[in-house]
Amino acid sequence: MGRAGSMLALDSPYISNFAHNNHEEPQELCLEYGSATQVYLVPIAQHEEQVFLTPTQVRSQGPRLSCAPVDNMASQVTLPRDLHGAVDFSKYPFRAYVSDLHGKMVGVSLFGTVTSVCKVSTSGSTFYLEIEDATGVVLTKLIFTGHWSLGRVGVGHMVYISGLTCSLNKINILEVSWSEKEPGSLFVNLSLLPALLNSTCLHNISLLSDLPHSANRTHICRVRLDHIDCDSLKLSLFHNLCGYVVDELPDGLQCSFCKVACQNGCTPGFQLHLTIADDSEKVFAWCVGQTAVEFLQISPDEYMELPEDEQAMYLFTLQNESFTVAIANTSKRVDGYAENAEALPVWEITRALRCE
Ligand SMILES: [Zn+2]
């Protein structure tokens, strides 16, 4: 039985907002007992039950906990739940910060912002991803079994990556790598998730005028479409695997990011430049793919079927429509970031949601 002072663990609570009335911003989070929620009482005799998590114990990972290990062997991070069983926390990811990384670590998870991403060489299936969190920056080597498979990832995107391995090379430089085929390898681009905008409890609304002064790279803003015209819009081919634009070279189509030939496996889409505004500021931004379709509310095929004068008229009708957007600073990282005229931010709208 629990009593005042007992420590509880809560798995999969239902998260809802608490607003005093319909006109107020939701300010408080409310955790409710939902259909998938489980509550655990953590044993009070902590000095007996506490286990020390070392990196080698978190080698096998998964996104969910398991109450009954398949091999029926409890790991060293198993806590008794009640008389009938125990919870094995070895399946929970172990999140580290960049400053925590050192040699001989496996199964490490990082959450941060992408500051650069590129292919190591034109041939091969290895890429470099640079991730920054509040404690530092780390360059990660991504090794794929075939082609790039993580969808679109760009500078300024918030990502979660797990299954990282850290080692020291011959000259004692830390090397961090991630292999697609390693069990427990997981990559999530949070900037592109619909939940980022749908779940109001996950974000605070920023004003556009706050953007240049903030250390955060991703912001959620409520904006109206201030300006868009036919010159703002370009139709291009996008590579399905990575979402980047495909270049037309003399010997065929080549992805500008993966550098692979992609005669098949590409889809037409919009490249859109637009001005968004709120009461504080106007910002010139860009977006591609599904986000551009959300703004334009028309598919590339449907748009191309319109006569030219109707295209212009159609775009004009979209002005002043309201959207909630996730907007990311895609400028390259500058050490000791200083506010000056040369450091022009480039803003990408990674998600947009039309407000009725
Ligand atoms: Zn590609």
UniProtKB/TrEMBL annotation:
Give one Pfam family. CDC24_OB3
Question: InterPro entries of this UniProt entry?
Answer: Cdc24_OB3, NA-bd_OB-fold
Entry's Gene3D superfamilies?
Nucleic acid-binding proteins
Task: List, for all copies, the residue spans of the domain called Cell division control protein 24 OB.
Answer: 100-318
Q: Which domain of life does this protein belong to?
A: Eukaryota
PANTHER family, per the entry: NUCLEIC ACID-BINDING PROTEINS SUPERFAMILY
Protein name per UniProt: Cell division control protein 24 OB domain-containing protein
